[in-house]
Specification:
With about 450 residues, this protein is of the alpha/beta class. Among the domains are: about 45-185, Leucine Dehydrogenase, chain A, domain 1 (Rossmann fold), CATH 3.40.50.10860; about 200-360, Rossmann fold (3-Layer(aba) Sandwich), CATH 3.40.50.720. Helices cover about 45% and strands about 15% of the residues. The structure holds nicotinamide-adenine-dinucleotide. Nicotinamide-adenine-dinucleotide binds near residues 233, 237 and 258.
Amino acid sequence: MSESPEIPNTTDEDLNPYHMAQTQFDRATGYLPHLKTGLIDFFKRPRRAITVEFPVLTEDGGVRVFTGHRVLHSRVRGPGKGGLRYHPDVTADEVRALASWMTWKCAVADVPFGGAKGGVACNPKELDEADLRHITRRYISELGDFIGPHTDIPAPDVNTNAQTMAWVYDTYDALHPGSNNLPVVTGKPLDIGGSQGREEATARGILYATQAVLDSQILPERSSLAGADVVIQGWGNVGTHVFELFREEGARIIAVGDSQGGILNKEGLDKAEIEEHRRDTGTVVGLNGTITITNEQLLELPCDILVPAALGGQIRRDNAPRISAELVVEGANGPTTPSADSILAERGIPVVPDILANAGGVVVSYFEWVQNTENEQWDLEEVHRKLHLRMTRATHDVLAKQSELQQRLPAIREALEETRSKHPVPEVPHQPVTLRSAAYVLAIERVASVALARGIWP
Ligand code: NAD
């Protein structure tokens, strides 16, 4: 069973995630004419990228060599922080992109972490649990001291979960006995230092960010989730919890999809029925009382809110003109390409960007890290309250930055003309100012101010 994106790229659009991340960054720097050129270069490249090749004795008796990556993009605002992805399509460039998004995400959410990411190219569907345990232990031991509680802290991402994080912790702890190593990884099981609320944190953050943007009248005729028609791509950690939380707020989830395709019922879907069907068949597709659709059709369904919560590069130049949602909220990392961003902006469809929308995961990871460091355990209400506060504040900060940039646009353009003669700024500011550019500008300003205050070492 292949997990590669089933939506064919029908244009020659560059879907390399690292190039996408760099274009997004370049666009944002167009709004920052006074940013020191050296800093642009500094922020664009990862501080460190490691690739490890390691053998694993698999349960079928063979030996297989796997390729793993760990990229530390920035440690300006704190230790690197970022998930660990197991997927056949993992590449060094994908991990580089994901690591840079973590830097900007942590800055938008205002948690004191930098950005990092890891991944192993493997297909978990073809491996059993013992294989995954061996891969995890060997990968973490190969990384050695390149991860650590105060340097670079992994977490779950696609196809990894609390169990994987328990193995990460156990391996690191075996190699570094005698210290409190719990903060070396987040997303751990509750009885091994995990935080209440971490499992659903990303989705809960998406809920709070969505509520805050709806509250700000981003859609003239909708100020809450009650009665909204919602489409979700992805039936994993993020997708399933978004389903549940949006339903609780009165939204109707009319379509969902996984790697096999999608299902539609305009009257609304039932989570328990989908879960039972998926347990029996391995996919959401084919559930009684639903219409089977392709992932492409799923993304183009008319709805109030579309939540891509699977993989990157799903909304592109070729299908963006047909996206029929009123609002896109990015659960996944990098689901919208820069060309699609421009098309959606011209069409007046706002996109709540990944570096804001899905920051709830890293916010609660930060809470877990704090609890581990202090040997504390917060209750669920406290986690929810603190997450709500941070996600709402981050969303308001991004909205405020968007209005500020919009107002200052003529002055920014003028300043740009002056600075362009001295050093090139890659992109002229776009109109209208998207929430993505606003989030990037906010994040770059926050990282730049710390970088300048700390000074460039030595
Ligand atoms: P997951 O492994 O739990 O689920 C991924 C889902 O995507 C599965 O349902 C899978 O079937 C589906 N999928 C895979 N290929 C697909 C395709 N081609 N078309 C449609 N669906 C496809 O992963 P997750 O943790 O839910 O992460 C989903 C996205 O959210 C990723 O982009 C991830 O980086 C991002 N994210 C996750 C977290 C987190 O805390 N888990 C935090 C921030 C961002």
